[in-house]
């Protein structure tokens, strides 16, 4: 019966591996964990720090006419785990800006998913999931600075302002719809609260981020 025990063990290990692959943690802010996250500044510095709130430990972002982001390099196979999960909260919006223009390209909260172009670096693409101050939920458009990035409004205006929003997106489906092809792979995930173009201020809070199977 040794072969039965071996078969059972193999099956259990296989199931365990499948279970582990069904969730890919990107950010574990609730655990006080910032390992692997790096900062990149575009103009000034948004202040990112872990804070305690009613929801537990979260990442707080404060921007004052600044634009810097936190990013984590990570490889995600969207054929296995295509659904991105996250939560965020903000208590104020941008005033008087047109987010479709370079002068108005500011958001109190956004998450980038970056796709590698491989050796063809100019084919690197990104989807920006944003909290828009003025565009309706579900809107999408090319980023004002590069045609390789697309914006999708997942939170809009006053709706849910000051409250935690728990969101999820099928990134594989979004990529296929926006770019008309299959992505190579997810290369990085980034967070950015930015107000450099409008010169305004914004504060946002981010919860844990992960990918899962459908």
Question: How many β-strands, per DSSP?
Answer: 14
Strand content: 35-45%
Shape: globular
Number of helices: 2
The CATH class: Mainly Beta
Q: Outline the low-pLDDT stretches.
A: 1-20
Which structural class should the secondary elements be placed in?
mainly beta
Q: What is the percent of helical residues?
A: 10-25%
Q: How would you spell out the order of helices and strands?
A: HEEEEEEEEEEEHEEE
CATH architecture: Sandwich
As for the CATH topology, it is Jelly Rolls
Q: On the 0-100 scale, what is the average pLDDT?
A: 89
Major β-sheet annotation = 7 strands, antiparallel
Question: Can you tell me the number of structural domains?
Answer: 1
Under CATH, the homologous superfamily reads Galactose-binding domain-like
Q: First CA to last CA: what distance?
A: 38 Å
The radius of gyration over CA amounts to: 19 Å
What does this structure look like?
The protein is mainly beta and 214 residues long. The chain has a single domain, classed as Galactose-binding domain-like (Jelly Rolls), CATH 2.60.120. It is built from two helices and 14 strands. The strands form two sheets. Strands 1, 3, 4, 6, 11, 13 and 14 form a seven-stranded antiparallel beta sheet that branches. A seven-stranded mixed beta sheet has the order 2-5-12-7-8-10-9, with helices on one face. A hairpin with a 2-residue loop joins strand 3 and strand 4. The longest helix has 20 residues. The protein is globular. The protein starts with a helix and ends with a strand. The N terminus is likely disordered.
């Amino acid at each position: 019966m040794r072969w039965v025990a071996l078969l059972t063990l193999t099956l259990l290990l296989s199931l365990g591996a499948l279970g582990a692959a069904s969730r890919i943690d990107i950010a574990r802010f609730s655990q006080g964990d910032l390992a692997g996250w790096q900062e990149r500044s575009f103009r000034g510095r948004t202040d990112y720090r872990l804070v305690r709130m009613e929801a537990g430990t979260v990442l707080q972002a404060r921007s004052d006419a600044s634009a810097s982001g936190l990013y984590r390099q990570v490889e995600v196979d969207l054929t296995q785990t295509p659904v991105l999960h996250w939560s965020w909260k903000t208590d104020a919006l941008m005033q008087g800006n047109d987010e479709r223009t370079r002068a108005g390209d500011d958001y109190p909260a956004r998450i980038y998913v970056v796709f590698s172009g491989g050796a063809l670096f100019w084919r690197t693409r990104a989807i920006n999931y944003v909290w828009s101050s003025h565009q309706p939920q579900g809107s999408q458009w090319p980023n004002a600075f590069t045609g390789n990035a697309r914006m999708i409004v997942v939170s809009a205006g006053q709706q849910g302002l000051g409250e935690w929003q728990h969101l999820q997106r099928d990134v594989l489906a979004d990529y296929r719809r926006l770019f008309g092809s299959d992505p190579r792979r997810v290369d990085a995930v980034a967070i950015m609260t930015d107000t450099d173009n409008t010169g305004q201020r914004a504060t946002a809070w981010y919860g844990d981020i992960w990918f899962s199977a459908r």
